[in-house]
């Protein structure tokens, strides 16, 4: 009988020693001390021994083997480990080898492979040595890595001009010889592997929704019009948890619909999202432009289309049904209805559950932003983190009135087509870029067509500012695709000409005046980049998004979302919460906000209550008769007092006090007695568990369970004994599968009529196995 090694050896290192060497340590874990034993230590590389590295023998009390790193010549880039076995000299007895943990000793290059495109930020390649770089002198000690790359630029320019994709081979040359000692010599003639770099120069896809609203999809060459109100999926890419929804409400006298809000779901609440997606909002939210990265090609869907380069399938429904494409301007109502969202599917109604956020670069959770109606000429923005799931009572009435596609001029207000065309032309001519795009007849015809549709079906000229903004944005995009619109600056970079990008926004004209380089000079009493912020008023809170009542039994009330206006998007806000009245299970607060700590805006009211025992409305709260209100805490009917299992909330007995379940309940105070194993004459054996309890009560039952290492076996339910019987038996044959465990039993009292049970009391235990 020879002892066995049971524990794996431990590999430590690489460790630098005081004499300037460094090595790996293999520590044998063994408590015995037999002079006839010898430990054989074999060093492994990728799990295999190498003939250039001999094995080592440890005698008597020796437990440490050492591998000098100078022996790693030709073994760089391997998983170093050790394996140990017991050897008894003078006999043929050798135990099996036991392997240690391993350590990668070599050069690591990451990422591998490397892909970069216009939608990526600049990327780095990192070269890491997992073993120390040591020399035999006190001068600068280093390895020389020579990067072998052709003259092609590694980082592509991020613009909308297509320049093609190309491949670059990033390679590190063979490390040159060095006279810096034995430890650097292990890298001689070593060549790290090459890295393939693909430079992808791809374009983004763009969808525009302007006016009331007119949609140009990612692939579709004809415009189509959405004249319905409600919440719709404008675009979604399920593979990357990205979604954009729009909210439309009746406008133009109720005959058409306009975008009044946009909700974006991704990991950030800024307009330029981390994936490279872009959402541009103009004219107070009426015009929306969505640009998505090239890697979404073929992955997206929604009322903006499929962005796969195929025109015929843009009208794809969520279930995969493909509606025939229009051959001219059209109103695809069935397609729009298929993408309508309501209730919990609307980002305007419920913030969705959190998702895995491992791709976030800054470790923060994502946020969502949405807009409400344009109430006073400024944007109304609401943002919330996705882990705070709250329900909002902001449902939009579905506007089902159908627009007559055959409607003729003049419109309901008597405006003729010629008059409308003149208004639309003047709106285009107001654009600061009109002189640069006046010869783009196709663009002008498209915008005028939208404008005419607005006036005809909407019966109003309120959209004319949106027409100006829409023409300006589309003109900018057209100019940006033209290489002649770029100049080279003093740093040698291509930049778009100031006359294309530095323009004054249309919103400026409401309370300001345009100056040079697109600057907006505000009138007295107004401020902000586009002069839409009223000075001296502070943030204006519109409403609590989930309503002025918050039931803690239904949702989280510690964090709420408030729609706010008269702010500059992105500026930090501070809220002030004032408790108005505090009564048991309900509190009412006044909430206001400030952007500078000095000027607070208006107040909104919020009542927080526990709906378990209170019914609350705007006028106040009433106590429910279907719950208990004990010590200022609400309990449901049937709840058990966490401090006493003998007390419950029973609304048939009392709404204000605990009801005693049983006035005199027995308890097990003595541990059961385990006996055995008891050997019988028939060569069988059993364990016996005796419960020590003298009381007799017909309503009592004793529940006894066998335990193995303190745990019940799910396959063997507890036994119930009644009356004077106090003993149960475990046949030894039932130990199959439980050898090597501590056998015990536990018991408790059960009152089945009142559904009450005491806690388990455990016996001593007995090790049943081989020692």
From TrEMBL:
Domain (EGF-like): residue spans on this chain: 500-532
Superkingdom per UniProt: Eukaryota
The name this protein goes by in its record: EGF-like domain-containing protein
Entries under PANTHER family matching the protein: EGF-LIKE-DOMAIN, MULTIPLE 7, 8, VWFD DOMAIN-CONTAINING PROTEIN
Keyword terms: Disulfide bond, EGF-like domain, Signal
Gene3D superfamilies, per the entry: Laminin
GO molecular function, one term: signaling receptor binding
Source organism of this protein record: Candidula unifasciata
Disulfide bond positions: 504-514, 522-531
Entry's Gene Ontology cellular component terms: cell surface; extracellular region
A Pfam family it matches: Vwde
